[in-house]
């Protein structure tokens, strides 16, 4: 039975979330290429003049995945203050923890031309994992892959780390667009598949409960 609240309709037996919408945090330090990556996801273009302009708090991107229209709410999170302060009451940590409550995906962004940014996300990972659900999909994302002459993190080293952690790894360039579309499509595909599995499980669970005699629920 459906219940109406104004223009909103809720089905009590259905999970209370938008079936084809996901929240993805883009985590990394300022200057690591987070904003350029998100702009590439959104507009499929790069304009250097726009890199100093702030993005909205949430950037919505839309893709066709598994025959459905899927929306992703991308939110950039600053990592440097979080990493440099061990106080659990640190405001940066509190801010990130608040946004981790309902997150579905996590993009850990590092600059391939900066060893420090790679070490930073690796050091922050244990704390971040304590804030998120176990089923959140995490991906390591190297940016500025077009700057090969300035590279400080080799793909081999990054791949070893990603394999040890069990994460996907993409080296991207917002300037050329390399691997940007592949990245967003892969994470949305994984999230869509996982949500479909959850819905199927809940549906089967409901069927089992409905098939049981009502006396089975009497203490």
UniProtKB/TrEMBL annotation:
InterPro entries: P-loop_NTPase, Small_GTPase. The keyword Nucleotide-binding applies. GO terms for molecular function: GTP binding; GTPase activity. The gene is Acey_s0148.g2650. It comes from Ancylostoma ceylanicum. It holds the Pfam family Ras. Belongs to the small GTPase superfamily. Rab family. This is Ras family protein. Keywords: Nucleotide-binding. The keyword Nucleotide-binding applies. SMART domains: RAB (SM00175), RAS (SM00173). The lineage of its organism: Eukaryota, Metazoa, Ecdysozoa, Nematoda, Chromadorea. It comes from the Eukaryota.
């Amino acid at each position: 039975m459906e219940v109406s609240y104004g223009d909103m309709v809720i089905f009590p037996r259905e999970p209370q979330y938008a079936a084809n919408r996901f929240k993805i945090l883009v985590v990394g330090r300022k200057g690591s290429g987070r904003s350029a990556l998100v702009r590439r996801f959104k507009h499929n273009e790069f304009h250097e003049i726009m890199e100093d302009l702030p993005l909205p708090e949430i950037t919505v991107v839309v893709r066709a995945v598994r025959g459905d229209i899927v929306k992703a709410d991308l939110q950039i999170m600053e990592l440097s203050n979080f990493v440099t302060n061990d106080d659990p009451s640190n405001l940066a940590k509190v801010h990130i923890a608040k946004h981790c409550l309902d997150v579905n995906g996590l993009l850990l962004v590092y600059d391939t031309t900066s060893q420090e940014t790679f070490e930073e996300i690796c050091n922050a990972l244990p704390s971040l994992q304590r804030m998120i659900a176990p089923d959140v999909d995490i991906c390591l994302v190297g940016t500025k892959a077009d700057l090969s002459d300035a590279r400080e993190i080799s793909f081999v080293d990054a791949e070893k780390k990603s394999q040890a952690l069990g994460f996907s790894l993409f080296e991207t360039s917002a300037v050329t667009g390399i691997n940007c579309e592949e990245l967003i499509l892969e994470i949305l595909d994984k999230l869509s598949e996982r949500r479909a599995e959850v819905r199927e499980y809940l549906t089967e669970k409901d069927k089992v409960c409905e098939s049981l005699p009502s006396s089975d629920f009497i203490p």
